[in-house]
Every structure is written in structure tokens, then in C-alpha cells.
Specification:
By secondary structure, the protein is α/β, with parallel strands linked by helices. The chain has a single domain, classed as TIM Barrel. Strand 1, helix 2 and strand 2 form a beta-alpha-beta unit. Helix 2 packs parallel to helix 7, helix 4 packs parallel to helix 5 and helix 6 packs parallel to helix 7. Bound molecules: zinc ion. Zinc ion (ZN) binds next to loops.
Length: about 250
């Protein structure tokens, strides 16, 4: 009798450990938040460092490419369209970052339309499926949004904050810019907050690696952010995946 009780409680203990193993951070039935990792400009480091690191966890992000750019961007090498295609083929979303990184509020209406329409056209001709855009420097005005609605399903300007999951404003997506001044702990704090409060956090990254600009975020810190996402167990989605979810609901 005693042996049987020990055997049963042993089995219960193993079952309990198994349940903790498969639901490590989900003690309640909450849905949790969403995190989207977005990368601007299509820099080489985003292919060489980011893509490789995120593949380890099977995480997909959103990459915003310049459709017409030759050589270096602000002194940094860009990835090739072939490399970006490899990312798309593995589930990444590719979006437009316009043709040539002009500030959209300083150009004529015709030029705004060209930047939005032509960049999409060129990237689609290259084989990318373009649904979203990130404005250069995050700068926009009402005319830009009005035109964006004709060609894209969502845009990410520079607006600071978290998004609602149920009812996001897809043309005014809020994000948190990840800058050199941030520690990985600060980013981890946003991730935990998004998961706890069940909101959608979009992170905006630029170069991953050492550098002199405020937008350079070190490889080590980036790896720590990815580890934090994994530990927290928050859902990782591209903007397109959130859009598609929205349409189904
Ligand atoms: Zn940019």
C-alpha cells in the first residue's frame, strides 16, 4: 500500500514537472503580449548577426529595405537583395523603407507618391511581398499617411509606445527605438511589460554591432534581448502576421 502511494505521488511529481516544463511562464490562462522586431535600412549586420541569431530560436522579424540604394548607407554596408530574399524565404517579412531615405515631409506631393509607389513596385519586382512601410527617420505628415493607405496595409512612423492587440492603429504603429544608450535590461523590462499587460510591443533596431552613432546596438546586448524574449515566452510575430490575424478575427 505504502509503495503504491509512493509510486503514484512519484508519477504526479513527474507530471507536474512536465507541465512546468511546457508552460514555463504561463501560470495563468492569459494570452500574453506580442513582440515584433523590426530592422531599418537593410544593413549587412542585420543579415549576418540578426538573422543568424534569431534563426536559433526560429524567430522571424520585419526588415525594411531601401529600394534604390547604391553602395554604403551612412557609411555602412547594406545586405544584397539575395540575402534579404533568403530571410523572406525563411519566414521574415520584408517591407519598404522608401527608395532612397529622403525625409517625406520635405519633398513635393508627386515625389511622396513616387517614394511610396515606386519603392513597392521595385521591391515586388525583385520578388518581395510588400505590405508595410517604415518612414525614413520616422517622419511623416497627413499627406504621407493618406498616400500610404493607397499602397500599404500598415506603416510604422516614429511614435513612441505600445500598441493594443485587439485594435491597433495600423497606419500609426507605435514602437520603441532601441538605441546605444539602452541596456538589454531596459529592453527586457519593456518585453515583460508587454507580456504582462497583453499589449503589442514593436522594437525598432538599426545597426547591430559597435559603432559611433546613437543607433548602434551591440551584438552582445542584442543576444541578451533575444534570450530575454525566449525566457519570457512572449509571442514573436512580424507586422504582417499581426495584420493577418486581425483580418481573420
Ligand atoms: Zn532608416
Amino acid at each position: 500500500m505504502k509503495k503504491q502511494i509512493i509510486r503514484i505521488s512519484g508519477a504526479a511529481l513527474i507530471l507536474l514537472l512536465f507541465l512546468f516544463y511546457i508552460f514555463p511562464n504561463n501560470p495563468t490562462n492569459s494570452e500574453g503580449g506580442i513582440v515584433t522586431l523590426t530592422f531599418d535600412d537593410g544593413l549587412k549586420s542585420q543579415y549576418e548577426v540578426v538573422f543568424k541569431e534569431m534563426q536559433k530560436y526560429n524567430y522571424k522579424g520585419t526588415l525594411f529595405l531601401l529600394a534604390e540604394w547604391d553602395g554604403l548607407f551612412e557609411g555602412r554596408e547594406l545586405m544584397t537583395f539575395e540575402e534579404a530574399k533568403e530571410m523572406q524565404n525563411s519566414g521574415w517579412e520584408i517591407g519598404s523603407h522608401t527608395l532612397d531615405h529622403l525625409s517625406l515631409t520635405t519633398i513635393s506631393d508627386d515625389k511622396i507618391i513616387e517614394e511610396l509607389e515606386r519603392s513597392k513596385e521595385i521591391l515586388e519586382k525583385e520578388g518581395f511581398e510588400i505590405k508595410t512601410i517604415a518612414f525614413p527617420y520616422g517622419i511623416y505628415n497627413e499627406k504621407v499617411i493618406e498616400e500610404t493607405k493607397k499602397y500599404y496595409s500598415a506603416s510604422r512612423p516614429m511614435e513612441e509606445g505600445f500598441n493594443s492587440i485587439e485594435n491597433p492603429n495600423f497606419y500609426h504603429l507605435k514602437s520603441k527605438w532601441v538605441l546605444k544608450k539602452h541596456s538589454s535590461q531596459e529592453i527586457c523590462f519593456w518585453i515583460k511589460k508587454a507580456n504582462k499587460e497583453e499589449v503589442w510591443l514593436i522594437l525598432t533596431f538599426h545597426n547591430i554591432g559597435e559603432g559611433k552613432t546613437p543607433w548602434d546596438f551591440s551584438e552582445q546586448k542584442f543576444k541578451e534581448v533575444i534570450e530575454c524574449i525566449n525566457k519570457e515566452g512572449i509571442k514573436v510575430k512580424t507586422i504582417k502576421e499581426v495584420l493577418e490575424n486581425e483580418k481573420r478575427n
